[in-house]
Write a structure and sequence with these properties.
The complex is a heterodimer. By secondary structure, chain A is α/β, with parallel strands linked by helices. Helix content of chain A is 41%, strand content 9%. Chain A contains 17 helices and 8 strands. Chain A has a 4-stranded parallel β-sheet with strand order 2-1-3-4. Chain A has a 4-stranded parallel β-sheet with strand order 6-5-7-8, sandwiched between helices. In chain A, helix 13 packs across helix 14 and helix 15 crosses helix 16. The radius of gyration of chain A is 21 Å and the shape is globular. Chain A starts with a helix and ends with a helix. Chain B has 9 helices and 16 strands. In chain B, the strands form 3 sheets. A 9-stranded mixed β-sheet of chain B has the order 9-8-7-10-6-1-4-5-11, sandwiched between helices. A 5-stranded parallel β-sheet of chain B has the order 13-12-14-15-16. By secondary structure, chain B is α/β, with parallel strands linked by helices. Chain B has 2 domains: 172 residues, Rossmann fold (3-Layer(aba) Sandwich); 122 residues, TPP-binding domain (Rossmann fold, 3-Layer(aba) Sandwich). In chain B, 26% of the residues lie in helices and 26% in strands. The chains are: A alpha/beta, B alpha/beta. At the A-B interface, helix 7 and helix 16 of A face helix 7 and helix 8 of B. The structure holds flavin-adenine dinucleotide and iron/sulfur cluster (2 copies). Flavin-adenine dinucleotide sits at the interface of chains B and A.
């Protein structure tokens, strides 16, 4: 067995503090990730460290990993500690239920697998078949498949692909969770099993690329599935190619001030900053404005890292509130994102701050979908 | 022998409701079997509890042994194993509780006896005992027969039936402790109280849940009045806890709590996916929302499309009248 120190290369740390300096949640929680990297060296202390509530405040945004001059991933120490808690079974019932649902139904939302493709109802969708080669194989994501608030991302994508005459197919209902949140909740064993099962499943299909709708799936497949044969892209990459090939055109206009929020899983972790912006710039009438904290410095919305199932003890302002206030100051009428989780966090804050009349939070695919129809 | 042996459960010196509830079922079954229902109590310093259990006209057998001071599944298994040999009951009934499920499967394996778990009803049909259990969150009832055996084992669901009224006093018989040796594996370490706030909404029968539609905390007394009138606890969406109207431990949803009340009244809650996930276990859902398109109505059994501030006072008034 590897020790904690070996597994996370703790001796590589020079205690410079850039990780904690960049960590967005320090403004609202007691989390000091540098301290954890330091203290986890002492194996006798691990059990005590794992009991600290703040290990659940990390959103897995990866700011610390992006900034570490030694190439460490400080957040993984926190996740390793979560693993100890998960293994001891002392997790919140909400976390337990989400993990169990992934195991039994292939999604963390406690929804039946049989209804995974319900979002397709009434749409002319091409379904993937291992015997039929396809250029673009679409992976939907559990949240987009089940949460009615963000289903339009997949539904509009189908309409757009049909219209643009793209060679595509969506995975049938036996598509299973990529494990992004399982990994960050610390259920190592379950995640390993998912990687094995999904790799085998996806490798059966003959596709040129797998297109993911959620950046969480995108990053997880890219970084944690070494044996996946097919390259993985995010949908914004595919759409920019289609745009440049003249295959996409918009009918209406959207004369609004739009600010783009870089999702951590797409930007900091996936390295994709420009494609979403190009899509937004292609919208007739739209004016794209920028947050001061953008791209690598984008402020995390606190949607990832398993936060859907664990609430912070902190009563201080949510980062998504801060983000929406920043957008308000910029005079933005639309906060556009390319991630289902960012929609949920930012929209909740937008409503909570009472901006419902004058502001809208939307996934890019929601906006593009409307421009196809009008 | 035809007897039905009912194991009375207790925790921290108090008898659990299921101990009494099983007495609504056991005598009828015993009668069909030509035997009688007998209560078994195991613990340390059991006089008070034994007295309470005798109030139902049934014989109460008491094992009073300091070794049973704290619950230990292994000790229960060992003791029941010996008692089954001695008493040869036709049925052994135990609550389907954290305790019951801890030793009954092991006992069934050890004695090679058939066990039906989480039973909500026991009855005689065609001369044999049949147990009813529920599938798919209570949507389907399955009637299960036992394999032929000298003793049938049953764990009975809490709250499945009402406890009977107390009647005449029964006798108390003291048994020698069947526990003759130390158990090899399990040791009692400590009793950990569940950490709960003032109210544990996962245990509430009725919940009145508020959302962002409440607008401001000065509207809270209206909701409290309704809650008091129907003996409900107040819960809410994340929007309501974020606004500070109710404490965080009252939040229902994926990052809050999963609740399963008999009645859930949601007002001013849109019914976001993350909220619905926490309340889908509710038996009956009433939703009040002024937006007819609100997703909460997709799960509601009763829908009131109107301004909650108009509905609330009338609802409270009517419910008070009904009392
Ligand atoms: C990481 C994460 C975790 C989350 N976890 C949870 C969770 O555990 N639990 C949870 O609840 N949410 C959770 N959410 C938030 C969730 O996504 C929703 O934003 C939230 O549930 C909305 O709360 P609401 O329904 O009270 O508010 P809204 O969605 O704003 O709905 C308010 C409703 O009130 C109605 N209304 C307004 N005025 C009146 C009136 N006078 N009379 C009648 N109706 C009126 C409106 O029509 C509207 O439907 C989470 C979000 C994130 C990002
Ligand atoms: S940024 Fe890297 S090297 Fe610096 S303290 Fe954090 S983990 Fe250590
Ligand atoms: S991943 Fe983000 S939230 Fe977690 S420790 Fe690193 S910077 Fe902080």
């Amino acid at each position: 067995m590897q020790t904690f120190t070996e597994k996370y290369d703790l001796l590589g740390c020079i205690q410079c503090g850039r990780c904690t300096g960049g960590c967005p949640v320090t403004v609202r929680a007691d989390l000091n990730v540098r301290q954890f990297v330091n203290d986890a060296y002492d194996e006798d202390k691990l059990e005590e460290l794992a009991k600290l509530a703040e290990i659940w405040d990390c959103t897995a945004c990866h700011t610390c990993a992006v900034r570490c001059p030694k190439g460490l991933k400080p957040l993984e120490v926190l996740i390793g500690l979560r693993t100890m808690i998960v293994e001891s079974g002392k997790v919140e019932p909400t976390v337990r239920d989400a993990l169990q649902s992934v195991l039994l139904e292939g999604n963390p939302w406690e929804k039946s697998r049989a209804t995974r493709s319900d979002w397709m109802e009434g749409l002319d969708v091409r379904i993937a078949d291992p015997d039929e080669p396809v250029e673009n194989l679409f992976f939907v994501c559990c949240t987009i498949a089940y949460d009615p608030r963000v289903r339009a991302v997949a539904q509009n994508m189908v309409k757009l692909l049909n219209k643009a005459g793209v060679d595509y197919a969506f995975l049938p209902e036996d598509e299973s969770c990529c494990g992004s949140e399982v990994l960050t909740l610390g259920e190592e064993g379950l995640f390993e099993m998912q990687v094995e099962d999904n790799t085998e499943y996806l490798n059966e299909f003959k596709a040129e690329r797998i297109v993911t709708l959620s950046p969480h799936c995108f990053t997880t497949y890219k970084t944690h599935y070494p044996d996946l044969k097919t390259p993985v892209v995010h949908y914004t990459q595919l759409l920019v190619d289609l745009l440049n090939d003249g295959k996409l055109s918009w009918k209406g206009e959207l004369p609004k001030k739009i600010v783009y929020h870089d999702p951590c899983y797409l930007g900091k972790q996936g390295g994709i900053y420009d494609e979403p912006r190009e899509l937004l710039k292609s919208i007739p009438g739209a004016e794209l404005v920028e947050f001061e904290r953008r791209r690598e410095r984008s402020l995390c919305c606190e949607g990832g890292g398993g936060k859907m199932w664990v609430e912070s003890e902190s009563k201080k302002e949510r980062l998504s509130d801060t983000r929406i206030k920043d957008a308000k100051e910029l005079g933005a009428e639309i906060v556009a994102v390319a991630c289902p989780f960012c929609v949920l966090t930012l929209e909740d804050s937008m409503k909570g701050l009472g901006y419902e009349e004058e502001m809208r939070v939307a996934e890019i695919m929601e906006l593009l979908g409307e421009l196809m129809e009008t | 022998m035809g007897n039905v042996l009912v194991l009375a459960e207790h925790r921290q010196g108090a008898l659990r409701d299921v101990s009494f509830e099983m007495l609504a079922v056991a005598p009828k079954i015993a009668e069909e079997l030509g035997g009688e229902a007998v209560v078994l109590l195991m613990g340390s310093g059991m006089d008070d509890m034994a007295k309470k259990m005798t109030g139902y006209g049934l014989k109460v057998m008491v094992v009073d042994d300091p070794a049973f001071e704290n619950f230990n599944a292994e000790k229960y298994q060992m003791a029941l194993s010996a008692l089954l040999d001695d008493l040869k009951p036709s049925v052994l009934m135990v609550g389907h509780t954290a305790q019951g499920v801890d030793f009954m499967p092991a006992l069934a394996v050890e004695k090679k006896l058939p066990l039906v778990a989480d039973v909500v009803e026991l009855a005689f049909e065609d001369g044999t005992l049949k147990a009813t259990r529920q599938l798919y969150s209570g949507k389907v009832n399955a009637v299960v027969a036992f394999k032929p055996a000298d003793t049938f084992l049953v764990t009975f669901r809490e709250g499945a039936v009402e406890a009977p009224e107390a009647s005449a006093a029964g006798d108390v018989e003291k048994l020698d402790s069947p526990l003759k040796e130390e158990v090899p594996y399990r040791k009692f370490v400590e009793y950990v109280e569940a950490e709960v706030g003032d109210v544990d909404i996962t245990q509430s029968d009725i919940l009145v849940a508020i959302g962002r539609g409440l607008k401001e905390d000065k509207n809270l007394p209206m909701v409290e009045e309704l809650a008091t009138a129907i003996k409900a606890d107040i819960a809410g969406s994340r929007a309501a806890t974020d606004a500070g109207w109710i404490p965080h431990d009252r939040q229902v949803g994926t990052s809050g709590k999963a609740v399963k009340p008999k009645l859930y009244i949601a007002m001013g809650i849109s019914g976001a996916f993350q909220h619905l996930a926490g309340m889908k276990g509710a038996k009956t859902i009433v939703a009040i929302n002024k937006d007819p398109e609100a997703p909460i109505f997709t799960v509601a059994d009763y829908a009131i499309v109107d301004d909650m501030f108009k509905v609330l006072p009338k609802l409270t008034e009517k419910l008070k009248e009904l009392k």
